[in-house]
Design goal:
The chain has eleven helices and no strands. The protein is an all-alpha fold. α1 runs antiparallel to α2 and α9 packs antiparallel against α10.
Length: 300
């Protein structure tokens, strides 16, 4: 049997879509602010001799517009709270997904001895979502009738839950554990490449800034303040790298991948049907965003 994201409830898909939209908005806003700051510094470095009508400097005007745009983007970001909504909706989406998997494969607390697994699943899910709503998560069911009317327990979830232990284990290991392990491996490689790229960029920009600063020291280059522009560009690259958290994510994702590899081995060799509910629960804890954030904070 195959169980994919398409088999999850509508609430998950809607929350996931909102999270992606807010992520793009938050990341895009930060990117544009950094680019505009560098552009403003570059325009401000143009020679003052480039004027129109004896006193008006177009480069200075464009520089002022760039800085004004940064302020506008900053104000807009603070009003829309895209970053916090991105994180809240991502947490909600991953929580829903984790609960659905635990229900479908008899993970704790929805093991084979549950008297009414559907009712228990619904109550536990709603309890967790209420906790997220307390800190600002906006439940799409309050404003979208189609999401509110959709079932929380889908037909594929019930179908998988009705299968025997071996089918549930095979499906969970293949479509959840291995898929998540591969995802963390890919993200680790992406973060490694990004770390190298931004480290080299920062180093080269700083080196060129040092070169032009030495030229100005000996009065060999005075008309264009390239050292300041290069310094601003290096600072923007450093800020972007820190915002994306590439370095701590490498360590965190590597640790999660190692834990999943160990859990994979255990599930294939030693975990019995009695131990299965707690093993699924532990796997879902490992792949939770909260666990990754905890690792990032302690690896920063």
């Amino acid at each position: 049997m195959v169980f994919r994201n398409t088999d999850l409830p509508v609430l998950f898909h809607r929350t996931d879509t909102v999270a992606i939209a807010h992520q793009r908005e938050a990341v895009g806003s930060t990117r544009y602010q950094l680019l505009l700051l560098v552009a403003g510094a570059a325009l401000a470095a143009f020679p003052s001799s480039l004027t129109l009508s004896d006193s008006f400097q177009p480069a200075g005007a464009l520089s002022a517009l760039a800085y004004a745009a940064v302020l506008m983007l900053s104000y807009r970001a603070s009003r829309r709270s895209a970053k916090s909504q991105w994180q809240l909706n991502r947490s909600a989406a991953e929580f829903i997904k984790s609960m659905c998997w635990r229900y479908a494969v008899h993970g704790a607390p929805f093991d084979s001895h549950s008297a009414d697994a559907d009712e228990l699943f619904t109550s536990r899910l709603e309890e967790g979502l209420r906790e997220l709503a307390k800190v600002g998560w906006q439940d799409p069911r309050t404003s979208e009738g189609a999401v509110a009317a959709a079932d929380l327990v889908t037909t594929p979830m019930r179908r998988l839950r009705a299968k025997g232990f071996n089918v549930r284990k095979e499906t969970y290991v293949r479509d959840r554990l291995i898929e998540q392990r591969n995802w963390y491996h890919r993200r680790t490689e992406v973060s490694r490449r990004a770390t190298v790229l931004w480290s080299v960029s920062i180093g080269l920009l700083t080196l060129f800034a040092l070169f032009f600063a030495l030229l100005r020291t000996f009065s060999l280059a005075e008309s264009v303040h390239l050292a300041g522009v290069l310094s601003a560009a290096a600072a923007a690259c450093l800020a972007w790298s820190e915002i994306r958290r590439h370095q701590p994510l490498i360590a965190a994702h590597s640790l999660v991948e190692e834990d999943l590899a160990a859990m994979h081995t255990a599930m294939e060799t030693t975990v019995t049907e009695v131990e299965w509910p707690s093993a699924v629960y532990e796997t879902e804890r490992i792949v939770s965003p909260q666990h990754t954030d905890w690792l990032v904070r302690h690896r920063s």
